[in-house]
Structures are given as structure tokens and as C-alpha cells.
Amino acid sequence: MNDAADLATPLLKIRDLKIHFRQHGAEPFCAVKGIDLNLQRGESMAIVGESGSGKSVTALSLARLLPEPPAKITASEFFVSGHNVLTMGDRELRKMRGKEIAYVFQEPSTSLNPVLTIRTQLAEAIHLHRPDVTDVDAEIVLWLGKVGIVQPEKRLRAYPHELSGGMQQRVMIAMALCCQPSLLIADEPTTALDVTIQKQIIDLLAELRQTLGMSIILITHNFAIIRGIADKVAVMFRGKIVETGPTEEVLGNPQHPYTKALIDCVPKLGVKQERLKAIDYAVVEAAL
Known about the structure:
By secondary structure, the protein is of the alpha/beta class. The protein has helices at residues 3-8, 55-61, 90-99, 108-111, 118-129, 136-146, 152-155, 165-177, 195-212, 247-252, 257-264, 281-286; strands spanning 12-23, 26-39, 44-48, 71-74, 77-80, 83-84, 101-104, 183-187, 215-220, 232-237, 240-246.
């Protein structure tokens, strides 16, 4: 496929995605109930919803990282860069994971191997997906520098416990990006970090997206962090996408009661409230 065709092909095209989990002695549980996802190259999307809405399960399914069984993934269309993910074998999936789709998860302290140095962990990713790289240390230093780690040469021999939470998350981002993926999926990447570091990480992702031209899917429960990084937003509730559209339109004029409730839950500077508004689930379910 030539470069022009690559650009014309949607990076992600999914129709009627359903994810079931088998339960011993019970009917399969449907965690994702027929959603559609579309993403062009260089585009960014936020998938927003509370815990249990199906966001992370959806994200993991994009590279078929859910163990099958107990999971069962079905869709009428499931294409990444024009390739049918549902028909890929294990070897093809290993090539796609990291190279085409890379992940950054919410707990860097548990994602990084505590007994291996930062160099060893990034080198493994580079050897696997970019065997043409001859000077691996220089490549690692380059990416550590790109994610804002000061004096990256000195961090090569460091172990994860020697770094702060924010630094660990930057290492995770460097590990994902050093494989030069087309799509970065950031699953609650700021949850375990304080507010100042949260902003730094979100600003970093937005900057890297612009400079590298990659696509991003940001998984979050927090509407407050998506402006400035996401072109569009999909709101999930109990396995369904209840509202989708350009970020500014959804934030400025939400149409679904669940979207309105989530936005109302975000504290606002200068507005004094004794309590945040609670979500009225009866109203939300009536609108489904």
C-alpha cells in the first residue's frame, strides 16, 4: 500500500463492536454493546465515562489484548490501518502491538518491571519493533529527552523505584513512542498523579501528538482534562456510546442527560458548592 493510500485509509474503523465475558455457570455478560469507532490518522479522541462503563475493555480490545476466552470480541467491521484485526493470528498481533498501537496505562509503578533498568525495558521494545536501530542507547536517550526527562543519559541505569510517579509515567510514554506507533492509547494516564503533574502529562501528550503526527485515544472519566487534546469525544455509559461529537460542541452543548451529569460533576473555579451534583441514573437510563 503506498503512502497516499495509507493516508486515505482510516486508522481505525469499527462497526458494532460487542465484547462478552463468559461466566462459569451463568449467561455471558455483555460489557460492550455494539459501539462504532472511527479515527483518522493524526486525529485524537477521548472516550469518557465513569468506572465500569466499558472504556478500558474497549481500549484493550483494539489490539486484542483481552484473553479469549473468557472474552469474546465480535464486530461487523474491525479494521486497523485497513487490516482486519479479528482475523489476525498471534504472530500478526504481536507485530501490531507496540508498532501500530501502543498503550500507556494509569499505574506506571505496576506497568514497569521493578527489577529491570529503564534502559533494559526500552531496549526490549526497540529490539522487537525496530530491529534496524543500531545505536539503541542513543535512541533511548532521544525519546527520554522528547518526553521531558532531564539529563536522560543518567536515567538509563535507573530502576523504576528511583523515579517519581510523574517521571515513571514519562518513561512509559517514551517506551510507547520509541516504537513509533500510529496510535497511542492512554488509559487514565494521570489518575495516580497530583494535579500539577496531571497537567504536565496531558500537555506533553498534546505536544507530542502535534510534533509526531500520531493519533491518540484518551480514556478518562474526567471531562476537565480533554479540552486541548481531543478533537472529538465519545461518552460511554454501561457499554454503550450515548453521545459523540466534536469536543467543543459536546462540552458546550451536551445533549444526553449522562453527558450533562458528568460535566456538572467537574468542580468549577469561583463557583462555591456545598456538594457536587449527583448523577440521576433513572433519568439517564430513560434516555437510552
